Amino acid sequence: MIELAEVSRTFLVGDRPVYALREITETFAEGEHVAIMGASGSGKSTLLNLIGCLDRPTSGTYRLDGRSVGDLSQSELTQVRRHKIGFVFQSFHLIPRLTAAENVELPMIFGDIPRRERRERVSAALAAVGLAERATHLPDQLSGGERQRAALARSTVMGPSILLADEPTGNLDSASGRVVLDLLDRMHGDGLTVIVVTHDAKVAQRAERIVVLFDGKVVERAAGGRIADVMAVLAAADEGPEEG
Amino acid sequence: MRVRKTFRFALGALTRHGLRTGLSLLGVTIGVAAVIVLTALTDGARSYVVEQFSSLGTNLVVVLPGRTETTGFPGVPSIPNDLTIADAEAIALLPAVKRAAPVAMGTETVSFGERSRQVAIIGTTADYALARQVEIARGEFLPRGDADRGAPVCVLGHVAARELFPGENPVGRVVRVGGWRMRVLGVLSRQGTKIGLNLDETIYVPVATGMQMLNRSSLFRILVEAQAYADLATARESIRRLVTERHGEEDVTVITQDAVLSTFSAILNTLTIVLAAIAAISLTVAGIGIMNVMLVSVSERTREIGLLRAVGVHRSQVMAVFLAEAALLSAAGALLGLLAGYLLVRLMVGLFPALPAAPPPWAVAAAFGMAVLVGVVFGLLPARRATRLDPVAALAGR
Ligand SMILES: Nc1ncnc2c1ncn2[C@@H]1O[C@H](COP(=O)(O)OP(=O)(O)OP(=O)(O)O)[C@@H](O)[C@H]1O
Ligand SMILES: [Mg+2]
After folding, report:
1. pLDDT tens digits for range B288-308
2. What was the ipTM of the complex prediction?
3. pTM, entire model
4. If you measure CA to CA, which chain A residue comes closest to B307?
């Protein structure tokens, strides 16, 4: 359960504050599939990083499964990321010198999991994304879609409860994007909380719920089926400054 | 095991940039090779000197006319009294002394028939052969007896004998030394060169004969053998007192071989320290090279570090990865340096076989240990920089 209460995140650029998130109060239920939308710079990634414990709020409280994240030490945050959270990024973030299998193994490599179990988990995760045959390939021997599937295998290999994806299909053509989205749907089906940041209506409409950010604030909440309304809000927001 | 995984991960990162890794190793390699070669050289020089001296016998005390350490007023050098055969005989009677051989020295022409050559003349007594452990190849050494009597006899060094009497036995023949005709009593076996004096090109004559022939009133030195190594200091002190009493002033220098040896040793130790310091500086420079390449590596791999942090790798583990890389770099460089150093030393020994150069084990261990330590110490700054990165910024490549 993800509970944000009046969460703000302010960056200092020089001595000028940039308000990336402003008093966001939002709850994400366990097993929910949510899409976060909004114009560029509206604070989507900042929100996702906060939820993923990569970052901490400037003010407000964030409770993850009842524990206040603001009170956790760096080392505890790392521990939370390792066990509870899986990340998928627009640019995959695979380490080029490691094979697909080694990349998937990465979250376990410095831990205490025995070698045999690590190998089993890697094979299972790769098989789940349809890359069993590509285990020994390097990232540059994989297509974009395959790379993102490898990244997806890596994000789930530790058995997290939350999967966070920032523009997971942003660098993919629509066919391989669809494969990745199907996998996300399946993982959601397996009980994971899935939160996807996207610009793409086709991605957002798969979610149960859509949250729209504007200038660091939640301006709209809608069911996934009401994607058309959401797109209208976004279009209006885009034109807003010109009209005003 | 976590350590092994950390090193494997680090190794993977290093082998990706072969040339850069290789170049950054080079500093360490050169530094370590320098330590090996330089310490091998000084150590070789040390054993060379020690060997030369110990071949002269370690129980020896040498008495020289004149004082090398001036304690009086400078300006007026006093002319020392002659060191005489009688002095040597008196020294021989001291309890700490086993034997004392007077030595007169000069050069003369020796000839037999048509053949002649310039040789060193040593005037001495039978005790000389015992004190110096000289081996006789043929005939015998100078006879025992009255040292003041100058008999016209001589003993030839190996080379002198070979050149004057090629293929013949010189014993019993008569050679001409300066204006003297002398009967050859014996020939020494090969001695080799000892501290600059080729003993094989020497002719030995009774000390009185030698002094007369060379027109000397003072001995060149007196060679004294102490009863035992433990008596060296006593012998030295009693000789000093005896001669001072006999001459009415302290006008001789009494040195023991081990004193000379320890002087040489001290010089060589200083040299070793200086060379070690130079080597340490070169290793420090090598460390800066490692730091540089590690800093580049950290900034190149910012995204990788961000990713590691995102998937739950602790700061300390990121630190360990980069320290392991630095340690591997310097250890590999050090191993190459050891190899290069050994090869260079072998090459030198091949070129100068007289020099028994071998790197001392402590230097090998110290060079390797220092190099790895330097790598880790200079790896600390880049590794800390890696751990300080904010995960979000690092993921964005910032
Ligand atoms: N580390 C930072 N320092 C300063 N400003 C930042 C930082 N990170 C984000 N911001 C600012 O915060 C605001 C929100 O950024 P964020 O990356 O969350 O936007 P976004 O909605 O993900 O945009 P995009 O769709 O382009 O990815 C932006 O104005 C951005 O410039
Ligand atoms: Mg973003």
Report:
1. 889 999 999 999 999 999 999
2. 0.95
3. 0.74
4. A93
